[in-house]
Amino acid sequence: MSAIANTKAITPPDVRARKGGTPLVCLTAYTTPVARLVDPHCDVVLVGDSVGMVLHGMPSTLGVTVEMMIMHGKAVRRGLEQALMVVDMPFGSYEESPEQAFRNAARVMAETGCSAVKLEGGETMTETIRFLAARGVPVMGHVGLTPQAVNTFGGYRVQGRGGDAERIGRDALAVAEAGAFAVVLEKVPDALARRITGEVAIPTIGIGASAACDGQILVVDDMLGLFGDFQPKFVKRYAELGQFAGAAITAYAQEVRERRFPAAEHVFADAPKGAHATESGEAA
After folding, report:
1. Is the predicted pLDDT of residue 162 greater than 80, yes or no?
2. How many CB atoms neighbour CB 107 within 10 A?
3. How far is CA 41 from each of CA 16, 37, 44, 121, 233, rounded to the nearest angstrom?
4. Which of 81, 186, 279, 282 is catalytic?
């Protein structure tokens, strides 16, 4: 019996059609439990290569591999029902040639069940985006600050100020014309993001850009206060779960040392003579 696709799930054409409409809500996810939490509220869930820094303690995204993205992509897929799932193509997996990009993107899509991939880069990536889109791989672009080029930029600096604005504008237009269904604008001035949003025919998704963008994305661990190594200016913390978790772990450690945990309600009594154990291991 053939599989039937979930017709409720958001598709790349659905996202593209939201240009100029209700802003797109986007967050990252790397695990099944978080995917389940964000799915009812998000239009797009990105399995970002930020997983390298957020979950694996890497200093940048450059050490992330295709295998890592597939592993986390599979986990996120299990937790989604309606949001569009996009997976980042990691550094070194698509820059060499359109053919290399297609081989790796096809593998990522086949093994994770994602509906699209995201590539960093503007004018230099147009041939690759066009090649992928023509072969059934929906592509989300990413211009402005592209974290995989952190060494070229000399750090995570704002892009597109002054004369550099024209470069970012050209990149966004090139990505749109090459066939991307949406483009992320990262860490660019508000005025530039507004201008680009008005110029390109596809939705812009801002992160450190402008409220005028067609959507917004944040790293979920940033906005929940779980990632505390640093906090970018563009991140608003909607919770401080890291602090709550720290307090809970402190309380647990204290109770263990004082022999207050486990208490009577957390341990099991021996089975009465003649009683049979249930399948859970507890006495009947």
Report:
1. yes
2. 15
3. 18, 8, 9, 28, 24
4. 186
